[in-house]
Protein: GntR family transcriptional regulator
Amino acid sequence: MADNLQEQLYQRLREALLAGQFQPGERLKIRDLAAAWGTSPMPVRAALQRLVAEGALEGEPQRSVRVPAMTGERFEQLLQVRLSLEGLAVESATPRLAAADLAILEGCVERMERALEARDVQAYLDDNSRFHLTLYQACANPVLLRLIESLWLQVGPFFNRLFTEADLSLRLNDFHDDTLTALRAGDAKAARAAMEQDLTYFGRYLLNLLGLEARPG
Structure:
């Protein structure tokens, strides 16, 4: 039972990190999380320690844990690796997508568009992560998927910077549309190119928030 509870808490924390629900540099307090989830501190601590071991969180003195701060250099390094791995995942996933998968992706794109128009921060983040990770899961390569998810755990919290320090750009959904068009056509190369454009645009947009690049138009 304890192992099952720890796994449940671990998955909840992972999902929150992937969706950008924590801020870079934010300290996660074990007792606060345990109280919010109605459990004892022990399984929460164990779940957090797993994420520290994966590099998604950082351990601090006195057993506290925090979301790593993000720098422009670190983000650029993560982006370079993400372009290669996520591009490969899209190319591999394209011929394996079923009609049900495409329907999920279409729903994500439609909801992201509405979220951008409504300035609904968390709704956009939730469907952005759902779109990407649903697509990548179709690649049928669990090793590749684990590597991608480990990178998303590190960049997910930084996505909050987009919405706390800058206006939303309606262009943020353009490359999702392009990716979806290529996926419908079964064009794996075009789908990969569109996804790489999406990651690059999104990355440049976020780097602007660190004052390192001009915001793309």
User: Anything to note?
Assistant: The beta strands are 27-28, 58-59, 65-66.
